[in-house]
Amino acid sequence: MPSLEVMYGRQLLLSDLQRNHYQALIPDLQQRPAVVKQCCQRCGYDLCHYQLPNRAYYCPHCIMLGRITSQQVLYYLPEPNHFAKQATYLRWQGKLAPQQLPVAQKILVTIQQQQMRLLWAVTGAGKTEILFNGINWALQQQQRVCIASPRVDVCLELYPRLQAAFNVDICLLHGQQPQYCYTQLVVCTVHQLWRFYRAFDVMIVDEVDAFPLVNDAALQFAIQHARKQQSACLYLTATPSPTLQRQINQRQLAVSYLPLRYHHHLLPVPQIKIMPYLRRYLRQQTLPLWWQHYLFRKVNLQRQLLIFVPYVVMLADVAQWWQRYFPQQKLATVHAADEQRLNKVALFRQGMIDTLMIKPGKCYFYVRLILVM
Predict the structure, then answer these.
(1) Is the pLDDT of residue 363 over 60?
(2) SS3 string of the chain?
């Protein structure tokens, strides 16, 4: 029989319980309606226009997690915070820069006083490290902490860093890694929060301005319902949305601003080089002479390269002429539908791939090839 702890702070349909073989837990679980006043209680979506032939309302918005109807209930169990207590969970030995210290202190106070705060910091400012003391304090108080992001790539980047920084079990959840285990610290995509209910004492949302979170009220609903009514909430971003900036100006949201990276060096500005008639050169398997000189100079710096190609169909051709000129380079191509995408990105981060050619999710530029050096 599975342990009840797999349901602490969770909300699941009967079909979810059956799929995970949790049926034996049902007598010990609490229930609440899946739909209240034509509003989905998993994602908050208005169901007034969505009815089945039996006149039951259903939710099309979160249907990827299993169809939810007004004839169903959600099974849940309140979070009891039954965690073993340690003197400290933090094993990170690094030091914060002088400009990071006051921000880290404000984050700690925000968590202690169960408030809300936006951490507005440029890319590379060390937002993750600034959170460490606050997370450690919450874990010491036997509180449950969630770090969520709208993007899988961010979760995959944060997970090993948190594993190295904290002596605590961590659960990683996203669409391709749905296996759940009960832990005090959870790293997940925002969509996974639809399966939590009043679970977290500290909710941290990274890249709060990113698609699809920024314009999705159902994901905002998930964030608020996954955290406890008395809890801390931290938003992290380098580019706050107009809505967040309006809340800051109206003093509805406290903000900590960090305009410099921890080493005080400015962000590098990508150089855009335009190659006209790219398709013709691809067919001829050649390059203009000045482009050859430019690329050889960049490759000789022995740095990893990201190459953004505007169309998926061009990836193979670009990769072919790239390896013709640079056969010593370990090359991979990747796009959104690539089944090996997460593995290739992980290998690139580990330095196992020299050059990664990628088709961005949205491509509005008119140039035919962009290289980010």
Answers:
(1) no
(2) CCCHHHHECEEECHHHHHHCCCHHHHHHCEEEECEECCEECCCCCECCCCECCCCCEECCCCHHHCCCECCCEEEEECCCCCCCCCCCCECCCCCCCCCCHHHHHHHHHHHHCCCEEEEEECCCCCHHHHHHHHHHHHHHCCCCEEEEECCHHHHHHHHHHHHHHECCCEEEEECCECCCCCCCEEEEEHHHHHHECCCEEEEEECCCCCCCHHHCHHHHHHHHHHEEEEEEEEEEECCCCHHHHHHHHCCCCEEEEECCCCCCCCCCCCCCCCCCCHHHHHHHCCCCHHHHHHHHHHHCCCCCEEEECCCHHHHHHHHHHHHHHCCCCCEEEECCCCCCHHHHHHHHHCCCCCEEEECCCCCCCCCCCEEEC
